[in-house]
Amino acid sequence: MSTYNYDYIIVGAGAAGLNLALAMNADRFFKDKSILIVDKDQKNKNDRTWSFWEKGPGRWDPLITKSWNKGIVKANTETIHLDLKAYQYKTLKAIDFYEYAKHTLQQPNVKWTFEDVERVVQQESGALVVTDQSEYTAQYVFDSRVPKHYSLTDTNYLNIAQHFKGWVIETETESFDDSSFTMMDYNLKDGESTSFTYILPFSKHRALIEFTYFSPDLVEESTYDKYLKTYIKNHLKIDQFTIKETEQGIIPMTSFPFDKFNQQYIIKIGTAGGWVKASSGYSFKNCERKSQNIIEFLKSDKEFYTDKTPKKYKHYDKIFLEVLTDENDFGEELFYRMYKNNSIRTIFRFLDEQSTLGEDLEVILNLNSSPFIKGFLRHLKKGFSA
User: Fold this and answer.
1) Do 102 and 227 share a domain, yes or no?
2) Is 80 a member of any domain?
3) Crossing angle of helices 370-381/357-367, nearest 10°?
């Protein structure tokens, strides 16, 4: 088996891997560095949709499908109107991001290969990547494969799955208000679980409708279909529609220590690096921010990469996961209080891990939740140190 050498190897061409590759490509420091991107999939399908909030114009604006400055949350039989003010909620189709990355990364120092990675091994002064076809060595490997040690059923850690199925539907009549998106609608739930409908209206005739769970237990695919059909018929009052696209996924919201699997020359990225926000499941903007952290590390003289996220946010996420694990039926009330009692600016800053301690206290106290406040005081007493 032949062995090829590169400066950097990125394992996985998803949001994390391509954000990192694009960040390298945009920085002159890497112009003479050889970069290999390895993924068994050719990324020629629209396999997902990424959504995120952002203040003002952003890097991905030319690619976004749709943006909104208004939204709603429906909970406790009430509709909460979200005026995003300086923010916009933006949606990006994966296929548009893939195509942009493929075009932008057509550079002499960047190579793509479509192979199945079997293992990544730390060596004395670099790392080895073994695929089903070849072997590659590099100074650093950025690995997006989730560690085999992680399991949604591992009781040693807090584990909630954000699992969902969505349909992009099209109607002949004008059926949607495309000026406003629905962050959460709890008017249709699966029993007492934290489950809701999420709606992104791309036009008056076309929208993504997703039925989503924040729960420790998964469901059969037919369950998502049942709730999607019920919601569309009974809540949107739509009888005739065509399903244009389907997407589904399972996003881990967990206290599992993914960063513990980093080694000197092997750095975990994406879900495998703990880049998914444990209390919300959002990750795309994290991929952008944490890619820049890696860029800064590679340009420094530091020997080991460390995540820059303030530890307090890991504790906040743990408290959130503790509440949803112990009282999954409390989810609707928890999110109702969050969106009802806090400004959207404060919520976004809190979820973006950019909030002050005063803003943290504001969000937590406004939740008016005994389990959450007790959890906060317990973690605060420990100094947010573990």
Assistant:
1) no
2) no
3) 150
To 10 degrees, what angle do helices 15-25 and 94-104 make?
Answer: 30
226 shares a domain with 184: yes
Q: How would you write 258-284 as a 3-class SS string?
A: HHHHCCCCEEECHHHHCCCCCCCCCCH
- Domain extent, residue 285, equals 3-67+93-149+255-298
Token pair 């993914």: residue: 258
| Model confidence pLDDT, tens digit, residues 84-139 | 999 999 999 999 999 999 999 999 999 999 999 999 999 999 999 999 999 999 99
12: region left, alpha or beta (phi > 0 left; psi from -120 to 50 alpha): left
Instruction: Let me know if residue 87 belongs to a domain.
Output: no
φ/ψ of residue 318, rounded to 5 = -65, -40
- Is 277 found in the same domain as 129? yes
Beta strand 110-113 pairing with 266-268: unpaired
Q: Which residue has the tokens 């959130």?
A: 320
Tell me, what's the pLDDT at 383? 62
Model confidence pLDDT, tens digit, residues 160-175 = 999 999 999 999 999 9
- Residue 377's pLDDT is 76
CATH number for the domain that contains residue 164: 3.30.9.10
